[in-house]
């Protein structure tokens, strides 16, 4: 693949991440009393996370220094610092940008909803207006399209832990 096409794919994903941040901001503002996720809250930061290669490349380009340090111990996301902060926060993957928010998606022709247990206040998520939930699907399709520019549609993914040098 020509480098300029790869550069365009990575730049597109960076812009997409920015758009996601803008779109979730009103949800976070309206649900601020409910959402307890803050810096250092890393219970959802799992070790088995994989991301598209294009997102991995964005991390490698924006935070090469973070990949030289030892990763967090197995069982925790490799990108976590000892105090639970994300080493690559500004280039964190899409999945991390929406983690903790109320999520909604279609499955077997039915709408499903979920939220991080720490942000579950016991209320019925089905009562939450759609506008206060992050809808899964559209952004994932855009990420897959950007990845297809790199791998021709194979949908290759990389384990976050595998990004570390050495």
Gross morphology: globular
Strand-residue fraction? Answer: 5-15%
Number of DSSP helical runs: 4
Give the spatial strand order of the biggest sheet: 3-2-4
What is the helix/strand order?
Answer: HEHHEEEHE
Radius of gyration: 17 Å
The profile of the biggest β sheet is: 3 strands, mixed
Helicity range of the residues? Answer: 25-40%
Low-confidence stretches: none
- Secondary structural class: alpha+beta
Our count of domains comes out at 1
- The overall pLDDT, averaged over residues, is 93
The strand count comes to 5
Q: Separation of termini? A: 26 Å
Structural commentary:
With 166 residues, this protein is α+β, with helices and mostly antiparallel strands. The chain has four helices and five strands; from the N terminus they run H-E-H-H-E-E-E-H-E. It has helices spanning 3-30, 53-62, 94-98, 138-151; strands at 50-52, 103-107, 110-114, 134-135, 157-159. A three-stranded mixed beta sheet has the order 3-2-4, with no helix packed on it. The chain has a two-stranded antiparallel ribbon with strand order 1-5. The longest helix is centred in the N-terminal third of the chain and has 28 residues, at 3-30.
């Amino acid at each position: 693949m020509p480098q300029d096409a790869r550069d365009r794919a990575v730049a597109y994903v960076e812009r997409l991440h920015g758009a996601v941040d803008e779109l979730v901001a009103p949800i976070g503002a309206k649900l601020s009393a409910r959402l307890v996720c803050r810096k250092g809250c890393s219970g959802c930061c799992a070790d088995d996370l994989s991301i598209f290669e294009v997102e991995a490349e964005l991390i490698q380009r924006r935070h090469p220094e973070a990949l030289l340090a030892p990763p967090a111990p197995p069982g925790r996301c490799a990108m976590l610092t000892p105090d639970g902060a994300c080493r690559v926060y500004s280039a964190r993957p899409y999945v991390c940008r929406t983690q903790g928010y109320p999520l909604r998606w279609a499955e077997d022709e039915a709408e499903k909803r979920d939220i991080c247990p720490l942000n579950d206040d016991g209320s019925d998520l089905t009562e939450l207006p759609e506008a206060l939930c992050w809808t899964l699907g559209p952004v994932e399709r855009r990420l897959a399209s950007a990845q297809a520019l790199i791998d021709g549609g194979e949908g290759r993914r990389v384990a976050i832990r595998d990004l570390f040098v050495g």
